[in-house]
TrEMBL record:
Compartments where located: Cytoplasm
Name recorded for this polypeptide: D-alanine--D-alanine ligase
Taxonomic superkingdom: Bacteria
Organism encoding this protein: Sphingobium agri
Record keyword Ligase present: yes
Length: 319
């Protein structure tokens, strides 16, 4: 596959909680492609997105959306119906990966270590704890740590949790409840069929929530992570296996918790992000840069992966 020049429609924005991050990702991608001589059409997604994509007549769509409906299969299904080539994962993969419970059902039977947990009605939290404290509750299908709450023994959210107390139970009818895993926050990017590096995320205060992810200076990124070699290798192996089992395309990012008192047995995959951020603070560009892949090269590789998949599909159709 030659490196263009291509006409790329960069799809960004939308109306999820992650809109500002998506706009940053999309603008970074657009500028990188333009710097390499490619034609770019920027599309801030609204309800007329199908008409605007059809009008653009691009060679490929760079999907820089985050959250619903850009990451949950909705937009992917629309682009499939339109016959468009697009970056990152397809419809089925996106549907499964955005849903933390479906992800467990897909991965745990294959030996991928993930925390136990179950879906609870948010209203039930006002009556009783679903698990022994400390535990975590989070939306089933949001990314970027949106709406994650850690309920501790001393009851930082009240005991029991109240409807008048700010938390995800005010915004979501159902939540996923999981045991809290003490220890360290690790993440591994996968690009194509290669796991990159392991980054440890050290929030300056609290935990690695949405604000810590996207506010400069709130989280220290240690890359490569200062961890035993066997833990690093396990992270990369699990991330690559999860990427393959789910059928991810382009880039993905796997997030882990590691209880460092338990060795490899303390390593748990939390989720797989099929459309990881491409902002200046994002982890995939950072890991790629450490391996000598600059930002523009990373963007081109993701686009090239999508175009190569298209060529492969055409070849299979004529076989």
């Amino acid at each position: 596959m030659t490196r263009g020049p291509w006409h790329v429609a960069v799809l960004m924005g939308g109306w999820s909680a992650e809109r500002p991050v998506s706009l940053m990702s999309g603008e970074g991608v657009a500028k990188a492609l333009e710097s390499r001589g490619h034609k770019v059409t920027r599309i801030d997604m609204d309800r007329n997105v199908a008409a605007r994509l059809a009008e653009a007549k691009a060679d490929v769509v760079f999907n820089a959306l985050h959250g619903v409906p850009g990451e949950d299969g909705t937009v992917q299904g629309m682009m499939d119906l339109m016959g468009l080539t697009y970056t990152h994962s397809g419809l089925a993969t996106s549907v499964i990966a955005i849903d933390k419970q479906l992800t467990k059902q897909a991965l745990v039977p294959h030996g991928i270590p993930m925390p136990d947990g179950h879906i609870v009605d948010s209203a039930s939290l006002f009556e009783a704890d679903p698990l022994p404290r400390p535990y975590v509750v989070k939306p089933v299908n949001e990314g970027s740590s949106v709406g994650v709450a850690i309920v501790t023994q001393d009851g930082n959210y009240g005991s029991p949790i109240g409807l008048d107390v700010e938390g995800p139970w005010q915004h979501f009818d159902q939540l996923l409840a999981e045991p809290y895993i003490r220890g360290r926050e690790l993440t591994t990017a996968v690009l194509g069929d290669e796991a990159l590096l392991v980054t440890e995320l050290r929030p300056k205060s609290g935990f690695y929530d949405f604000d810590a992810k996207y506010t400069d200076g709130m989280t220290e990124h240690v890359c490569p992570a200062e961890i035993p070699n066997e833990i690093g290798e396990a992270c990369k192996a699990i991330a690559l296996r999860a990427h393959q089992l789910l059928g991810c395309k382009g880039a993905s990012r796997s997030d882990f918790r590691w209880d460092d008192t338990q060795g490899v047995d303390g390593l748990y995959l939390l989720e797989v992000n099929t459309q990881p951020g491409m902002t200046p603070l994002s982890l995939v560009p950072e890991q790629a840069a450490k391996l000598g892949i600059d930002y523009a090269e990373l963007v081109e590789r993701i686009v090239e992966d999508a175009l190569t998949q298209k060529q492969g599909a055409k070849g299979a159709g004529h076989g």
